[in-house]
Amino acid sequence: MALRRFDLEAGGDTFAFKPETEEKIAFWRGKYPAEKQRSAVIPLLWLAQKDNAGWLSEPAMREVADRLEMPYIRVYEVATFYTMFRLQPVGKYHIQLCGTTPCQLRGADRLKDVCKTEIGNPMYVTDDGRLSWEEVECLGACVNAPMVQINDDYYEDLTEDSLQEIIGKLKNGVEAQAGPQVDRINSAPEGGTAILTDPALFDGSRNEVSRLPNLAEDKAEAPEASSAAKPEEAAPTNTKREVPKDSNTGKTTLISNKEKENLAGERPETVEVTAEEQDDLKRIKGIGPKNEDALNELGVFTFKQIAAWTPENVDWVEDYMSFPGRIEREGWIGQAKTLAEGGETEFSKRVDAGDVPSSQDDED
Amino acid sequence: MSDTFKLNIDGKDIEVPRHYTLMQACEEAGAEIPRFCYHERLSVAGNCRMCLVEWEGAPKPIASCAQTVGDMRPNRDGSAPNIRTKGDYVDKARNGVMEFLLINHPLDCPICDQGGECDLQDQAMAYGRAGSRYEENKRAVEDKYMGPLVKTIMTRCIQCTRCVRFSAEVAGVEELGMISRGEGAEITTYLEKSLTSELSGNVIDLCPVGALTSKPYAFNARPWELRKTSSIDVMDAMGASIRVDAKGDGVMRILPETNEEINEEWLSDKSRFVWDGLARQRLDKPYIRENGRLRAATWGEAFAAAKEALSVSADKIGVVAGDLIEVEQAKAALDLFRALGVNSTDCRPAGAKYGTDGVRERYILNGTLAGVEEADMLLLVGANPRVEAAVWNARIRKTWLWADLKVGRIGEAADLTYDHEWLGQGADALTNVRDTDFGKALASAERPMIVVGEGALCGEDGEAVLASALKLANEVGAIKEDWAGFGVLHNAAGRVGALDVGFVPADDGADTAAILSGGMETVVLLGADEVDLSSLGDSKVIYVGSHGDAGAARADIILPSAAYTEMAATYVNTEGRVQMTSRAVQPKGEAREGWAIFRALSDVMGKTLAYDTADALRGVLRGAEGESTVFSGLGFAPGVRGIEALKQPMTSASAALTSVSFGAVVDDFYMTNPIARASKTMAECSALASALDTPVAAE
């Protein structure tokens, strides 16, 4: 970044805001409390720049400082910090050429050459006072790269020719059409829209709900689904995705184990019990809500059943639930015996006190 | 939450207040933390990154100056956070910071005035790497004009912004700033205008590199060649602690020394840059006026001429002491002239009405300079501390800024660098001050302070002003057990000392105005140049002083004396604090210390004084064994010891308070005494200041 200094000569000695600007000044100052008026320094500097033919002269900066009762040096710091405050005169049409990566990749360098030949070096004002240009950082219109900003308007999708044409027009005092310089609206596709052209997409007809997924079947009063809206087949997905295979590695989930056969050991006996007779198996250390559900599915509901498991039963259950050795390690049977006789274990006490979050029911 | 926080720094457990910064905590633990931007008397910027330390568990090194201890969290196990200020991690971090700082710093140490006392140099030696890996071009920055005092070589700037913060916070004149950004960032004044603050020279001390250096001192000396002498400044009545750096027989520069009770670590521009005046316009031998022209003479001739001039009737002799008179000279002169029967002796400016009743508390600043930090209300009567005691003004500003001190002022409207309530022009404002909102607040204040300036005491109603200000002080509760919120702010270094030895008219003696009105046959001026000599008529004038100024120009006999850097002399500051200067260089030519001149003259006059050495003279001042006089102890301000005396109302108040404006005591801050008027630097400053009629926007 080049050194930025006030052009003291061109700035003259005086500056006054235009009368119509006063209202805007009052608007910006009104946003800040009386003792924090200096917060309005940037908007006021911006207004001063607008009122001073697009650049901030030294008297203009002093005017802002006087109005906000700030020391000149504090305003000077702000004015020199922000490069959008221009400290030298600019042309009637000041071109800010974006040179940041996306524009640069799309040919901003060639546009710079155009500016150099058509106008001159950056910040040089043509003799007729009409044109000047500078390179700026990203102006946020990358989708229309390369682009320039001329005064308040964006000129986008430029080529050397179109920029040359615009500059030529401005030179001759003809207004140039702002916006994209190719056949496109804003950042819509060039040459008109190619996808999503079906008018039905936009008339609301696709918005109808065919079936409420969480509605019970019998109560469902499904609206008549229009045939047009019905998908012909399942929505396309990433077909290359690998479908998980059901393997018996013992690492898969409990659910897929349900169909397991050839398990070692002997399946424990099942009982039929009413809800009242069921024991809270979670009071056994090692049995959480998931394991309890799995055991219930096996027909195991009471401590008494577990207490009566034979070693073969244990083998079978461990195999089924894919955690070899755990029942013995955690002493399920011993715990179950104690609990079946109405006793308590250290763990069950804590469960009863609600201290073991993993033993709370999922619904809680 | 407890008020303290536990830390473990370099394996040492330490407990510090929660508001401490980590840097303070580390220093408390005995670690040395390098820094550039941090300064204990300025706000924290945290932009140099030199003070990095390791906080165990933190992902990055911590800038210790910007980390408040209270915001830190303990370790996971609840133990105190572990900080390391040494070790590979910290060394590497600082090494990297130093490498970046040096990327754009020129290698011009051999021609840099900061060389030898440069923070960057020292810290590069201690924390930097041996060589540079940087192969690009270095950045170059245009030098900026900042006036006649501060020389800039901005390429050396490392953007610590200490100078910017100083001017905004301490000096209170926002004229320095950092413009542009990134690599283009530069420190400058607004459009390179000259610095206007009377404290601007302090940015030279604050600058950790050689970007801001002393312009008058440029290329004069290297720090290691200088003889450094601790001394006392006499440019104002504060008596700031200074260090006089001399080479050969010349004073090369004057720097402040830290003295929390007086000048903290600042110094006014006049005190700092007056030294070139010590080598100009000096009276280096006695002179006698013959046929209308002064001619150099020997001491013998001069004494003989003086004896003749003093051999008139004692009531036709008047003696006026000037602003810079040291206690020893005042004492010796007073003893001699009293022995000769002279009663017309005065050390006060013309028209002054104080100091004759022998109550010391009524002419010193009992509240003390540092005491203003405890005050909650301050009323300045005819005083303008910004020009009369610039460094104290910074302290008032500090208290106003950080501790909400309210300031009211009677006198000519002036910009004091802080908001204050203007209560009126002249003394009559004192009568109804209690009816104003400010007066009411003053009465309900916890620690109000009333300071009367010398300007208020020199008018017709001077005595009444003092009396009513004292009365007001007693009424609003400014005088209580532990608070003496009343005092006089002097602007002459010698005044309080001379008053302390009793250098006022005795009995029916004439005062300054009367002595100078032309009725005397012989007038002796002891460095008195600030007084109006135009109506002396054909009085014979004996001038004893160090500089050829107004008094010497009018003199018939000149007896050259030493200046304040050339003798060990006693001065009493406006607080009543007795302090001593030290001899940094020899007196010029045949000049002698003031007291010795009068000791020698007393011999010639046949009234030999009873002391042969300065020590013996000071022994007399200290009083006999066991006796307590104001000169018994050095270096302390009496402060609240005087409350009993302050409670006594003044009886002699006669004249009514008038509405005459107090007027400016100091017309030109840079030109208040003969030394300053002899200084080229001060002349430049003065010319700039008077040309400055476009004040910057109000703060």
What does this structure look like?
The complex is a heterodimer of chains A (364) and B (699). With 364 residues, chain A is mainly alpha-helical. Chain A folds into three domains: 20-81, Arc Repressor Mutant, subunit A, CATH 1.10.10; 93-189, Glutaredoxin (3-Layer(aba) Sandwich); 253-363, no CATH class. Helix content of chain A is 34%, strand content 6%. Chain A has helices spanning 8-11, 21-29, 41-51, 58-68, 72-81, 101-105, 108-118, 160-171, 254-257, 289-297, 303-307, 311-321, 326-330, 332-340, 346-352; strands spanning 93-98, 131-136, 148-150, 153-156, 179-180. Chain B is α/β, with parallel strands linked by helices and 699 residues long. Helices cover 26% and strands 17% of the residues of chain B. In chain B, the strands form eight sheets. A seven-stranded mixed sheet of chain B has the order 14-13-26-25-24-15-16, with helices on both faces. In chain B, strands 2-1-5-3-4 form a five-stranded mixed sheet, with helices on both faces. In chain B, strands 19-18-17-20-23 form a five-stranded parallel sheet. In chain B, strand 15, helix 8 and strand 16 form a beta-alpha-beta unit. The relative contact order of chain B is 0.12. The model of chain B is unreliable at 694-699 (pLDDT under 50).
